[in-house]
Amino acid sequence: VEGPAERILVPHFVRERDAYAYLKRSYITWLEIGGSHAHRLKNLIEHLGLSTLIITDIDAKDGTTNAAVVPKRGAGQRARNETVKTWIPKEESLDVLLDMKSEGKILIDRSGYAVRVAYQTPISMAFKSKDAAEALANTFEDALVYENPELFAKLDGHGLIAKFRDALTSSADLAELAAKAAEALKNGTKAEFALDILYSEEVDQLKVPAYIDEGLSWLAEQLKRKEDDVIGKVGAKA
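RE: above sequence
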């Protein structure tokens, strides 16, 4: 996982949600890599043959100046994330990454292990409008907000929680909300944000961001296949 918020909350999702019951009883190592640096572990993962899920951020940047920006379609934006640029799926265009199918985010080795990347995907969100629009998250934190706007609009807390709550209340439309969320994240303390959520009464009401849910479901299926393969070999020998 990319940062402290994911390291705190994603294992909690696995422990507490029935959808991930198989992962709860599996042997999994959670590793926080402190930024989009999973590609630095590529050789180790390949050498050990470890089935791996990489939960990371899309990290949009301006295609000309390389400055960090709020994700936007059709603007020639690119990903700053070295993992998606150089390893999986070896793509830099933000527009292409946003529309990429699940199979494009997976590498399967012929020896039996596989690696999948999970980054933010478009979220359909009706915000102060009758019609749903596409919200493009850049991080785990704003993805949580876009998936749970009603909850964060009422959630007690300070720091990032307060900034997100204020942004949801004061923004006139989704574009303004995205700009305010990005500004809040510049100086927000993400570990504090995650801990505040973890110890809140609302933590189990949170909808898990779709990109993480898809990744965890894939990991469970990957491990089930490996388990079935081992059991089948043992049964054949017996």
